[in-house]
Amino acid sequence: IANAETGFGPPGSTAITKLTTHDLEVIEGVSGVQEAIPRLIRMTKVEYNGRTTYTYTGDIPMEEKKRAIVYDTFNVETSSGKLITENDKGRVILGSDYYENSQARFGKQLEVGQTITVQGKEFRIAGFLEKSGTFTINSVVFMLTDDMKGLLDLSDEIDMIVAQVEEIGMTEEVAIKIEEAIRKDRREKVGEEDFTVQTPTQAISSVNTILGAINIVIAGIAAISLIIGAVGITNTMYTSVLERRKEIGTMKAVGAQNKDILMIFMIESGLLGLVGGIIGVIIGLGMAYGAAGAARAGLGIDNFRVTLSAPLILGSVIFSFVIGMISGIIPALQASKLKPVDALRQ
To answer: What is the CA radius of gyration of the chain?
Structure first.
């Protein structure tokens, strides 16, 4: 649950009307909510060895139960050091990038127990997280809620609230109840809410919508490329027919039938499409591997992998051959209908 955003930044951080502890109490009172966890997520300045970087900083709850839920939600484990508890005030956990890329970031290797500066205040490193599939987690700074509130001079502001339901099957129902409860508390009308309630299902749906739009754009580009390729093959075959009129006339003079000429030119156009398809597959795979490698290097995560599908590759090549043959039908028909006398005369 977060308030409506007014700019770019962590969830809830750019909202004009902030969530507060009062909103937290409202959510905790909703039937079906097992636990409501307030979260702070802000962009902060991190300094070490005279160098500066800016990154997301998130809070870790002081209460053990809520802290366990946060750790479980983000599925975080330390590669070195330890996760912080309520007794670790003045300590932080750093994402894996801070250890793996500390030489590039700060010109010096960071280690557990060393001190870094966050927003002008020194914190001791309690541990480094294992590499995650989420690049924001790999570059995050985690500190206790009390430390973060004191660091950023926050009172009862909350950037977002994570609600854990009593039963998984109640998620959508509880989300509606939470929305109704906050709307009623704020005396807002339906459609005029200045907050958002999002379930995991809705988040996945949003991602799928974006991916669907991307697929449509890619399909459009592919369709345009296909049309251009087909026109190119047609023009090439027209030129080929014009240049080989005498050969066509000779073949017909020695007994070649219209269907023989038709088949020769259709196979030739199909082979042009086949060669184009093979080259396209090679270039496509090269670009895919290159993009995946660049994403892994740039974002520091291993989630980007190229998966080869033999049926898809084979189907693409066969489809290219078929499109080539179809593109060459008209020039092939023209060639097959040439009269031997007319063809040999030119």
So the answer is: 32
